[in-house]
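Late entry, evening session. Most of the bench is empty. Finally got around to the prediction I had been postponing all week. Sequence below, unchanged from the version circulated by S.P.
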Amino acid sequence: MLFFYLKEYLQMKNEKAVVVFSGGQDSTTCLFWALKQFKEVEAVTFDYNQRHRLEIECAANIAKELGVRHHILDMSLLNQLAPNALTRSDIPVEDGEDGGLPSTFVPGRNLLFLSFAGVLASQIRAKHIVTGVCETDFSGYPDCRDIFIKSLNVTLNLSMDSQFVIHTPLMWLNKAETWKLADDLNALDFVREKTLTCYNGIIADGCGECPACRLRKKGLDEYLKVRKEF
């Protein structure tokens, strides 16, 4: 069994990956993870006329600094089809009520992003697709669940007669554990200072008030407390 995993690891080290990349904490941590795992890595960012254009600029700047080839794909149709707090400045960012989805949920976003990432991967001969979705500290988004990713992986392979592997390094990590992973990758300060997670478009520690910032800060505080103890 050990030989099998060693063989698989060595094979990955000689292969190519595409990272679905927003320039936020999670996807940037995944980018650092992919750079450790694969011989060659490219990043893809989707322009869907999101609330803050700075997100795309942030992603481009990070990719440039890390020497990663960066693709920006036009997904503006998603903006037309899915009005929500991330595509409309006049819709407030609100948590879901009574078990409902928050106003930041973009229907079909990960379905479309990963599908187009698969098309790109087929064109640049990449077998691996990396995404920062998570089922632990998430807002109840159905397209962040492990069962969805596994299902889509099968669908992509059937649709293109390929053998893609979708990797989700953060799937079972909470935010504190995600910060730890960034630290293990020697990227804690980079992720903290250069990523954009804030729904109000403020880089680094953000506004401190929106749901994304509160979750990010809570995880960081928890991790730094444990880190200090050791």
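Two things to note before I forget:
DSSP finds nine helices and five strands in the chain.
The mean pLDDT is 88.
Will write this up properly tomorrow.
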